[in-house]
Amino acid sequence: MSAFAFIAADLVAIVVMVFALYFPRHRRKDMIVAFLSINVGVMGVTYAMSTTELSLGFGLGIFAVLSIIRLRSTEMGHAEIAYYFTAIALGLLGGFPSVTAPVSFTLMAVLLTVIAIGDHPALFSRTRQQMMVLDTPMTDESMAKDLLASMLHAKIHTLDIRKVDLVSDTTLCEVRFTRLPEDDARTSESGDARIGSDAARAEEVRTAGGAR
Questions:
Q1: Which of 48, 91, 173, 189 could form a disulfide with 39 if both were Cys (CB 3.0 to 4.6 A apart)?
Q2: 170 strand-pairing partners
Q3: Residues 199, 173: contact at Cβ < 8 Å?
């Protein structure tokens, strides 16, 4: 099959990935040009190297030049790294016309399907991972879990205390949790309010007794 078919398939795949999957879900405009340029660049270099008789030294030199390019940008999350890898993989598949068309096009479709499902907003939509700073030093993980469960109205799966600052009285921790349904959250809120009101009444009773 003509090389233009592979190029067209790669362009269609990267357009679908960027404009139908990534941007509607993440809304990060600056990554659009990054994904498009890295995909087309990898495809062009791969096609040139696969169709031209090059020495081993020249090929290694090309990859050495590419390896010194450092990405100096804001931090990317794991999802964006996955999109970045997919853009590179699509470019590689589109740049190898020696690979049979059914295999190449099928792999492109598989990559898009995997990233479409894995990054779908409905997949584990209540599950979160977050860094939390507590305004009190805590070294007991069970106590920290109870406090965060009450604050986040969520079921805490794992909690990792990263830093306890006894000078500023803070605790930095990483928590993975699942938000409770709205009904359970309202029940938890009412329970917290009831506990708070009971504690306030008890404090008032103690204060009145001390005044007498």
A1: 91
A2: 165
A3: no
Is the Cα torsion angle 73, 79, 82, 88 positive or negative in sign? Answer: negative
Spatial CB neighbours of 162, under 8 Å, sequence gap ≥ 6: 131, 172, 173, 174
Distance CA 37, CA 197 (A): 59
The distance of Cα 212 from the centroid of its chain, to the nearest Å, equals: 60
Tokens of 205: 């009773």
Residue 73, CA distances (Å) to 30, 34, 35, 40, 183 in order:
10, 11, 14, 20, 42
CA 93 vs CA 55, 89, 139, 180: distances in Å:
22, 6, 51, 43
Which domains, and CATH codes, for the chain? 3-118 (no CATH), 127-211 (3.30.70)
- What are the tens digits of pLDDT across the range 175-212? 999 988 865 545 445 445 444 454 444 444 344 444 44
Helix (H) or strand (E) holding 60: helix 56-67
